[in-house]
Amino acid sequence: MTDTSINAASVSQLFQLLRDGVPRTRAELAKSTGLARSTIALRVDELMRMGLITPVADAVSTGGRPPSQFALNPAAKVVIAADIGASHATVAITDLAGTVLAQHSEDLDVALGPVPVLSWLVEGATALLERVGRNTANVAAIGIGVPGPVEHSTGQPVNPPIMPGWDRFDIPGWFHQHLEVPVLVDNDVNTMALGERAVGWPGIEHLMFVKIATGIGAGVISGGLLQRGAQGVAGDIGHVQVARGANVPCKCGNRGCLEALASGPAIARTLREQGVEAHTGTDVVDLVKRGNIEAIQAVRQAGRDIGEVLTTCVSLVNPSVIAIGGSMARVGEHLIAGVREVVYTRSTPLATEHLSIVQSVTAERAGVLGASMLAVEHALSPEALTVGFVTR
Amino acid sequence: MTDTSINAASVSQLFQLLRDGVPRTRAELAKSTGLARSTIALRVDELMRMGLITPVADAVSTGGRPPSQFALNPAAKVVIAADIGASHATVAITDLAGTVLAQHSEDLDVALGPVPVLSWLVEGATALLERVGRNTANVAAIGIGVPGPVEHSTGQPVNPPIMPGWDRFDIPGWFHQHLEVPVLVDNDVNTMALGERAVGWPGIEHLMFVKIATGIGAGVISGGLLQRGAQGVAGDIGHVQVARGANVPCKCGNRGCLEALASGPAIARTLREQGVEAHTGTDVVDLVKRGNIEAIQAVRQAGRDIGEVLTTCVSLVNPSVIAIGGSMARVGEHLIAGVREVVYTRSTPLATEHLSIVQSVTAERAGVLGASMLAVEHALSPEALTVGFVTR
């Protein structure tokens, strides 16, 4: 038992080093870990036998010698990643490096309830697996983002306002009737923050992803870790009051909420009040792209309102990157210009000196990439792997 | 080398278990770690030889048998903990459980600059060590809170507005001329958050400590970890704009900052404008304690202003506890009532359902307790101990 645990721990330790995909020699691995070269040789063989790492050819050909560098084998397993939005859903198969192998998107109303939506997800994932020549035995984990608060430890939505029928639904339990793999569930803005950081800002430890669409919310990464808060509702900035909106009712029952002023539908309403034909956020985006001056002004003002709330966020968590995403981010720089105008005027110089406020790099891919991250991170974690080593 | 590393790692692993002070038997330790009982016996002997753990007598006397339970020996070493405020400083000696063994406080102007202030600290600490019968060889680490932003990795203040002469001063380097132990430096509100959590709210993972005094700032613990942000200025909420203050100039150059409306001096100024004699925060506290109605109203309004900013903080980080501290917290419930009034009205029900907004449990002890935590956490960390094991 003792030997097995120690072996498992050192195999896992070695693998955590190799996870970044950078090829390393046995000598480099020995140096980084402090383990003896004989131990390294044994562990490398074990990881290769498991298929988790793969030999990488040297840059310079070395003739007939055995390959001397090793790295993560991203093809060892796949994960199922899903981004469930309010009215639209995406499911994808990715490898262990987060590369999307196949993907399918469809209009789907989350209010249909958990069983229809998750059944759609399973069917879609099964078809995609077949398309890429894999099967459920190759699936290491499932990652899912949903548009509401989630108790991350159990994978259950908690009082989600726009997800009728999902409250306390046991998403992992439901999947386990079909597939016995770990299921990680999180709020969609949290998965977007993970996706944006992994693809757009590797190594950045303090990042906020702000989604501006039908609703407004943020995913907060602080100290390198996604912050979910005590009830899993961290980042729920859509119902913070902004000064301009004292008389605007919000569907939450309060007045002057950011979402009631700066979301896609809110901007459309403002434009209608000015006699401009706009019913949805998409209409607003189209108007801005066609150069409509009222739409550009309304979007800029929405940016200022968002900036008002973000000013406090910048002071509180001191991020180095704020990435603006969600469907309204497609309006481009007009929205971000409004955000920057207020944040750089109002926040302290120390907090904004190295702060970038930018359009999301991953845009609409953020959610599914983050769901893949969530699944891969779990599947390759020391805990998951150690269990795998000991029990296999 | 391999064997030494693995031994050091398992000794450290065992010690991390015993750090909580709960006595455990060898059998319990074997079960928790998965290590063989023979290995446990060797490691326990090693930790006892180092003085880090100590036998604990059984509740029921077992006659002549050797003691069978072990726990952290808090007396193994001491740490020096210091809370440097704007105009007042405290230095203390604590044991490894954070218990204060001796303490000294004095009015001291931080603007005197680093050398006079740190010399005062060394002299004070030396005298306290002597008083408790210890010497510098017993000191495991030094923890210091200072009233400004700190780059935690180097222990250097960075552009601290009220600490002239301290910008980029190498505090650890200066101490190392006198004493070769680790020196941990942090912003004073951060240390207060650590102290409050350790003593008042053990096990709470999401806590904000809000200091209301001459300035206003917050220390944020999320996911169990103190969050310092990208530039070490996380929690700097004193210069967030509040709605009521559009025309009130702040010494930062902006207008309407929270600090310009709700700090001790700001409340005193409001009272003077109403013809009430008040020059400092202490005057305000005295007036409230004597039941002065204008002072009570002004303090309540300051609470509302602070609540306005905290509403956004609650939405963003979703804490389960907000502890109100700093010298103005001595006014008692009037201030907190104002905070609660706004936060519970304005924040989302999900974020406030399990939120406690309370007076700091540790009050003026928070800073020095937190500085002790900072030092002890470092001194007993697996990294610090492993280095100790290998090099000793």
From TrEMBL, chains A, B:
Source taxon at top rank: Bacteria
A Pfam family the protein falls into: ROK
Family: Belongs to the ROK (NagC/XylR) family.
Protein name: ROK family transcriptional regulator
Organism of provenance: Microbacterium rhizomatis
Lineage of source species: Bacteria, Bacillati, Actinomycetota, Actinomycetes, Micrococcales
